[in-house]
Amino acid sequence: MIYDIEYETMPREAMEAIQFRRLRSTLDRVCATVPFYRKKFQEAGITPGDIRSLEDLRKVPFTTKQDLRDNYPFGMFAVPMDNVVRIHASSGTTGQPTVVGYTARDVNTWAVLMARSLAAGGAGRGDIIHNAYGYGLFTGGLGVHYGAEKMGASVIPVSGGNTKRQIIIMKDFGPTIITATPSYTLHLAEVAEEMGVSFKDLKFRFGIFGAEPWSEKMREEIEKKLGLTAVDIYGLSEVIGPGVAIECYEAKKGLHIAEDHFIPEIIHPETGEVLPYGESGELVFTSITKEAFPVIRYRTRDITSINPEPCICGRTLVRMEKVSGRSDDMLIIRGVNVFPSQIESVLMEMEGVEPHYQLLVDREGNLDNLTVMVEVGEDIFSDRVKPLQELEKNISKNIKETIGVSAKVKLVEPKTIARSEGKAVRVIDNRKI
Ligand code: DLL
Q1: Complete domains list, the chain, with CATH
Q2: Mean pLDDT along residues 298-308
Q3: Distance 387 CA to ligand 1 centre (A)
Q4: Ligand 1 pocket member 134 (CB < 6 A)
Q5: What is the pLDDT of residue 328?
Q6: d(CA 347, CA 19)
Q7: Cα–Cα dist 271/396, whole Å
Q8: How far apart are CA 187 and CA 419, in angstroms?
Q9: Pair type for strands 128-131 and 154-156
Q10: Does any ligand 1 atom lie closer than 6 A to the CB of residue 247?
């Protein structure tokens, strides 16, 4: 179902007209209210009046995560604190967290975007949504929650953790949609199995998974194992939270970006040059409706491309390709650029391998060593050493052939790799560089 038919199926010219109008008023507002943006514009020698078309947006300087950190906690807010009704923050594994704020209108905008997203992902009134994204400073839990209520679906605010209890709830309440990170969902399925419950016997029809990269192969694995249709949802706290882009279950081929609220651009990560449709690069967003925390040309670090072709679902919103990774997650192993998701794809193609893995990077002298730890099924992990060695050799060979780096493969017993209740930790880099 299309929740917001007018905006989601709007002809391009009408959409661009709205985008431009909203962009201009956002630029006027940030320059008037946020000292950071006023200074940036002054330094670049431009005023909001110089932006006379959507194309002109490229004259405006980028905003980075470092800029948000420099203005920690509330320095980038564009409204007085009196008007801020909600605060979220991204956990930030390094350095300060980034803090974002919402006015009452922003909270409503976000709820509408999430209602749209849940609808595109297969949910409707009458569905029961098992929402296992974490509730708290993380935007996942409350984001889905408000969207579900807005669309009139029932939501179970179960959050992350307490995994066994979640399985009992799933059995007893019969939820039809699950929302969680893909990695936590796999963990839920695993615990369910231990408790003698098969996901396939539960009532789930759709899973709306995101907050971390997951490959096409991982999707196949999840759909097969769990017996549901898995769609991808994307977002980031700085832009609004989940709901920035969503796959439609009809096509499952790229995520429709909520362009009436966020203008996307793809840039070359090193030169900053804007790239044409179809080319892969770093995704940049400008918010054009947010009040409390507008972001102008915010560099997400996420790598993707944009496809403007019409979609079978009827939406005219451009689609971003599944995010292949973050430019700051990219590993450079002996000079070769490697995304964890590429390794994930190779692993998921191998028979007997489980969707739980971790990459360890070390440096010996001047040489980088990549070790891929991956779990294998109980049946393969027998006392016989030969089949294991064969499998290790084959995985290593496929990694070398596909990605071009040599990796040491270490097969480990089921449930050895730490499970996460939110985003999975895929890389441990011990190189200290
Ligand atoms: O992860 C918001 C979210 C919650 C999205 C629930 C989807 C579902 P942050 O914690 O600020 O916000 O992290 C944002 O997570 O820049 C991406 O690197 C990554 N990410 C989010 N969704 C996807 C996805 C939420 N579908 C960062 N595929 C982003 C790949 C994703 N990466």
Answers
A1: 1-329 (3.40.50.12780), 331-429 (3.30.300.30)
A2: 97
A3: 38
A4: no
A5: 81
A6: 42
A7: 34
A8: 7
A9: parallel
A10: no
